[in-house]
Specification:
single chain, mainly alpha, Serine Threonine Protein Phosphatase 5, Tetratricopeptide repeat, 2 domains, 9 helices
Length: about 160
């Protein structure tokens, strides 16, 4: 009889624990283990192309800060990597970090002053900052080097700046 009562009590306890899972913590509290938070550590890559490619992948996923980090790693390995500066500048521009975008596009222009598109892109960053004088200067330089500025862009600049050229 005593065995039956013990079995009954055990079954009731098990049923209570199943129905009310929080009860087991009260009956048998487990010490909470503090796990240190880990920052996401991306593996180190071998060369600038690998970092630049991973940056492009992160950019496409909308992970802009990771993309910027990868482009920065590529630049650290090769400070003359115009593609990494270009991609990082595009990312900064998208994020609204116009001064950083201007700095990166300026670096591309320093590396290769004949790349007309980067005068245009830097001009776009200046436009976002409402620095219309520098926007006009960069757009003129881009045109001088053969870049065709979309007419709608020039219309917006004329309206915003109050200038014709």
């Amino acid at each position: 009889m005593n065995q039956v009562n013990n079995l009954t009590i055990l079954c009731l306890c098990a049923l209570i624990i199943l129905l009310f899972p929080g009860c087991s913590k009260v009956l048998h509290p487990k010490p909470e283990v503090q796990h240190p938070k880990k920052e996401v550590q991306l593996p180190k890559l071998e060369n600038t192309e690998a970092y630049n490619n991973r940056g492009l992948t992160n950019f496409e996923k909308g992970q802009y800060d990771l993309a910027i980090s990868d482009y920065s790693e590529a630049i650290a390995i090769d400070p003359k990597n115009a593609a990494a500066y270009s991609n990082r500048g595009d990312t900064y521009l998208l994020k609204g970090q116009y001064d950083e975008a201007i700095a990166d596009f300026s670096k591309v222009i320093e590396i290769n002053p004949k790349l007309s598109v980067f005068y245009y892109l830097r001009g776009n960053a200046y436009f976002k900052k409402r620095d219309y004088a520098n926007t006009w200067n960069d757009y003129h330089k881009a045109q001088e080097l053969g870049f065709i500025i979309p007419p709608g862009v020039l219309v917006k600049l004329r309206e915003a700046s109050g200038r014709e050229k």
